[in-house]
Amino acid sequence: MFISVDARGLACPRPVIATKKALEEMVDGIITVVVDNLAAKENVMKFATANQCKVTVEEKDNLYSITITKGQGVVADLTPKIVQNDSVYLITQSTLGQGNSELGAVLIKSFFYALLEKEPLPRTIMFINGGVFLTTENSSVLEHLVALNNKGVQILSCGACLDYYELKDKLVVGAITNMYSIIEELSSSGKAITL
Amino acid sequence: MIKLTEYSKNGGCAAKIGPGDLAEVLRQLPKISDPRLLVGIDTSDDAGVYKLNETTALIQTVDFFTPIVDDPYLFGQIAAANSLSDVYAMGGKPLTAMNLVAFPVCKLDPEVLLTILRGGQDKVAEAGALIVGGHSIHDDEPKYGLSVTGVAHPNRILTNAGAKLGDVLLITKAIGTGVLTMAARAEMFPKGAAAAVRSMVKLNRTAAEIIERFTAHACTDITGFGLLGHLHEMANASGIGISIDTTTLPFLPEAKEAAEMGLIPASAYSTRSYLTTIKFAPTVPEYIRDLCYDPQTSGGLLVSVPEDVASQLLTDLQQAGIEEAAIIGRVSNKERGEIYVY
Fold first, then answer.
1. Are A39 and B9 a contacting pair at CB < 8 A?
2. What is the ipTM of this complex?
3. Over the stretch B11-42, which tens digit does the pLDDT of each residue have?
4. Where among B124, B156, B188 does a domain terminate?
5. Which residues in chain B touch residue A43, judged by CB atoms under 8 angstroms apart?
6. How is chain A split into domains, by residue range?
7. Model pLDDT for residues B174-203, shown as the tens digit of each residue
């Protein structure tokens, strides 16, 4: 549903009353309110925010166009992105690709950043061998991995690998796993990607 | 039933010209000085005071505005209580008053005007003063108020100037008449709107009589410039800074909810942009900030008294039925005019 309210020339509280009427008419949808003064802009934005709506405003030629989103559009935005597919990533080294390792370190960073932005998110990311340097202290991608973890992506590090590199007490993000679980994850996934 | 507020754009003291615009105009007028002029326009006071002799000073004030409520009798009462308040704020007693009337005689029943005037007259009588005349004009937008004359002892005049370091600040009415009259227009928060009307019709007479028994240093009433606007005037005239504890501020019922819903008079925003020496602690929520600028109509008295008498004054006010009275802050050693709100 879409409602447009022209509240130009109206003194307070009339712009708020007009917005209230529009909000009451809809369950889900977008309302745009146009006002011509700062007080009306502030008041309409306060009213919409107090009514749990998402509010944005644009100013042009001394007119304020306020966009108010009510209902589901808002709910989806407020909840963490938990949309996932069933792909599983297996990360076998701390850099991305063969060749120069400095370049590889830059690439792995941009890889996780891009992964974070891409919908749907993977189900699980598993780290083996040199990959465990990414889930432990001094990793340059911790921030991205924590964000992925917070959005519901399972992060697993190989226990034997952590032991080998003496990193077990330096694990920052996710849980420790073993080879049986890794194989189970890979075989049950819709798509397994190895890097 | 007629709805008086439909005839006005901004009701009550929210219709007042902003302090910034007003200062710009007044600045250009020649200054007046006379040994008998005790209080002129310099200190942004509520009334002018002229010394008649060693025992009597004349207090003169005028105030009028557009309808703030729909009921003509209540509008008359509120306008009168608001006009009389300026005399009380100076530490004086009102004696006589003159009506100021603007009314659309062709559009509205003269009975409405009669009811407004009856409300005004009843309130003036309650103050122990007399209406002795007036003036009326045709106007599409109804307006009503009074010019009030009072007296006080020349040495007992209370002004904005005089607040001292070590003083405590009290107010005698709860804040929120601006947002709640907006709420009434929006047909929201009826409980709060009714409380606002009860507050606005109340005279500041009892409060003023109690304050007179104490050594008050400064006094004003809180009207169109809101709590912070009037605090700022006091701080400037007294050459002091002020700190305000918002957790002790009395608010009318549902005033916070109305402010949060954006039912804020436009003049609150202009006062806010004009006052540049106000600092808020980051913990003060937005709706409390808005209420601190909320224009009050027939608001309470704001008084600055020495700390050692403050609690006795508060007790006396509350025992006299002024239950909303509260200590809200203190004079601080900040820069002149600076107000810290936490």
1. no
2. 0.84
3. 565 666 776 777 888 889 888 889 999 998 87
4. B156
5. 262-264
6. 2-78, 87-194
7. 999 999 999 999 999 999 999 999 999 999
